Amino acid sequence: MLHSLKSVVIFGFSGIPLIFLIRHRIIDLVPDTPLNILTGLIILVIWNEIHFFMVHRLMHLPYFMKRVHYVHHRSRVPTVYSVYSFHWFEALLLSTVPVTIALIIPLSATAIFIFPLVSILLNYAGHCNYRFWSGKAPGFLAFGTNHNHHHSRAKRNYGFASGLLDRINNKLFNKS
C-alpha cells in the first residue's frame, strides 16, 4: 500500500513539469479540436506502449530487478491493487510518458490531460486478472492474459497493452 501511495503521488505530480514546459513555450500545443484530441490520445497510447516496453525491459535487467522492479513482482497474480505498486524510481520513469512525447510532437492540452485516465483504465484491465476474450485474442487485445503470464513467469510479455513489441523483440533476438 505504501508503494502504491508513493506511486500515485509521483504520477499526480508528473503534470507539474508539463505545465512548466507549456508555460515556458518549450512544449507547443495544438488547438483542442475533436480531431486533435483523438489524434493526440492515439499518439499517447502508442507512445505509452513503446515507452512502457523500454522501461519495463530495463527493469528486468538484474540490477533493476533486484533493487527496483521486485516491488511490482511481489504480486505473482496481478490484481487491481498491484496497478500502482511500484518502487518510487520505476513510478518516476513511467510517469514521463506525456512529457517525453510532447517535447517532440505537439499535442492538444485536452489529450495530454485525458491520457492518464485512458492509461489507468488500460492498466486496470491488464491487472484485473480477467481474460477479456475467449480463445486466442489478437495480440493487441490480450493484455489481461499477457500480463498474468508476465507476473507468473517474469520472463516475457513486457508490453503494456499489446504483444506486438514482444513479438518484434523475440524475432530480433531469436527468442521463443
UniProtKB/TrEMBL annotation:
Keyword Cell division: no
InterPro entries referenced in this protein's UniProt entry, alphabetically: Fatty_acid_hydroxylase (IPR006694), Sterol_Desaturase_Related (IPR050307)
Keyword Membrane appears in the UniProt entry: yes
Entry's transmembrane regions: 7-26, 38-58, 79-97, 103-126
Stretches assigned to the Fatty acid hydroxylase domain: 42-168
Subcellular location: Membrane
Highest taxon of source: Bacteria
Name of the protein in question: Fatty acid hydroxylase family protein
Keywords: Membrane, Transmembrane, Transmembrane helix
Coarse class of the protein's main subcellular location: membrane
